[in-house]
Write a structure and sequence with these properties.
The chain is mainly beta and 433 residues long. The chain contains two helices and 25 strands. It is 5% helix and 55% strand. InterPro entries: OMPP1/FadL/TodX.
Length: 433
């Protein structure tokens, strides 16, 4: 077996492993469903709202807490859509272009999932409050059939993160609150995809990967209050993830048989983006509050995946910075019942010409409705429903197996994400002592 062939297989495998993107609700593989209250207004006022339910977005949100508070939420994410072949071809060595074959339509490749989150708040002294949020901001599973046309770039992918955010907030004046937090994040990833043998008459080979790691980022924010408005500003840092993974390649036949292997201890690094969040809540009447929020995502940090020894290379990803904009309302029907609604527009960081079947992302609209009911002064129930509508988008990133070797096998991808949408149902509770 050629050493360059082994490196090519492993590098391509780890490139796929860490391009872990699916049809999430905010952008690329970021999930924003960290509060059932926020979901009801399409996440239009979280950086400027107060209490444990807004801690993920802004640690300054808890500075006014006078007693122990807690919140728990869970969101059921139900994505739908299809990834369609529009004429993808494979070019094996010394052979002309041929159809990639397989099922031409992959329906609902993104699995349903339930996303939990929670936060706890406790005052330490007058105007000084400690908080702890536990969330899962980057999580999803995709599952393509082994006979899908997209099998060489995507088969089964699973990503799970756990973000632990201890926070401290201070009320500096009667109108200014500030806060800071550390984000300790655990990431666990696994995937598999098919590898083409040199003859189309032979069954596909397969590669399976897994990796995990712990990494650290930070969050800082402030809020400015008066009698009728609150303005919030927060910054969540980019996080450099360092994962250590294992790779198994099997099922390669003929001249490629020597490339079957089991490789441990391969390392990779990549960034998830920073977020710059600005928003406000404005009391228009005694009952009606208007909300607005803008988020800038520095997805251009995800420009490449660095692969350590023994591969020592980098795989370009070429994401671009992007935005989300949201507006919404809260309406207090009574002291116990509050109704909400909102709309959010989010732009994908993926680019035409750079999008593959493992990255079926697109621009989207998110429409939300929700309600809160205060059972008593200590316990409030939040519920929300969201409909997320994705634009159709091209899947057109050219890939290749065994790059830089005599066995190099390009796959000229020509596909499309169609009819994609998601329903998100959220339920939560807030408690105060």
């Amino acid at each position: 077996m050629s050493p360059s062939l082994k490196v090519s297989i492993a590098a391509g495998a780890f490139a796929s492993m860490f391009a872990l993107v699916g049809q999430a609700n905010a952008q690329a593989f970021y999930l924003q469903e960290q509060s059932a209250r926020g979901a009801g207004r399409a996440f239009s006022g979280e950086v400027a709202d107060t209490g444990a339910a807004s801690l993920w977005w802004n640690p300054a949100a808890i500075a006014d807490a006078e007693g122990i508070e807690g919140t728990l939420s869970a969101s059921a994410i139900l994505p739908r859509g299809q990834v369609v072949d529009r004429g993808t071809v494979i070019v094996r060595p010394a052979q002309g272009p041929a159809p990639v074959g397989g099922d031409a339509v992959s329906r609902n490749p993104i699995n349903n999932g339930v996303l939990p989150s929670g936060a706890f708040v406790a005052p330490l002294a007058r105007g000084v409050v400690f908080g702890l949020a536990v969330t899962s901001p980057y999580s999803f599973t995709t599952d393509y059939s082994s006979s899908s046309w997209a099998r060489y770039s995507a088969d089964r992918t699973r990503l799970r993160t756990v973000d632990i955010q201890p926070s401290l907030a201070v009320a500096l004046t009667d109108w200014l609150r500030v806060g800071g937090a550390v984000n300790v994040e655990y990431t666990d990833a696994s995937l598999s995809n098919k590898l083409p043998n040199l003859s189309a008459a032979l069954p596909d080979g397969e590669q399976k990967l897994s990796g995990d790691g712990w990494d650290v980022g930070w969050t800082a924010g402030l809020q400015m209050h008066n009698d009728f408005a609150t303005v919030g500003i927060a910054y969540k840092s980019a996080i450099k993830h360092n994962l250590k993974g294992d790779l198994t390649v099997s099922g390669l036949l003929g001249p490629l048989a020597g490339s079957n292997m089991s490789l441990s201890g391969v390392r990779a690094s990549f960034y998830t983006p920073a977020q710059i969040i600005v928003g406000g809540r404005f009391r228009a009447t005694k009952a009606l509050t208007l909300n607005a929020q803008a988020v800038r995502y520095t997805w251009s940090k995800f420009d490449a995946i660095g692969l350590g020894a023994p591969l020592d290379t980098a795989i370009p990803e070429n994401y671009r910075d992007s935005w989300s904009l949201a507006g919404g309302v809260d309406y207090a029907v009574s002291p116990a019942l509050t109704l909400r609604a909102g709309v959010q527009r989010a732009l994908t960081p993926t680019q035409d010409g750079e999008r593959d079947a493992r990255v079926p992302d697109a621009n989207r609209w998110n429409y939300g409705v929700g309600a809160s009911y205060a059972v008593n002064s200590h316990f409030t129930v939040d519920a929300a429903a969201n409909y997320v509508d994705f634009a159709d988008s091209s899947i057109d990133r050219i890939t290749a197996a065994y790059v830089g070797t005599p066995a190099q096998t390009p796959v000229l991808t020509n596909g499309e994400l169609q009819k994609a949408h998601a329903f998100v149902l959220s339920l939560g509770a807030r408690m105060a002592l």
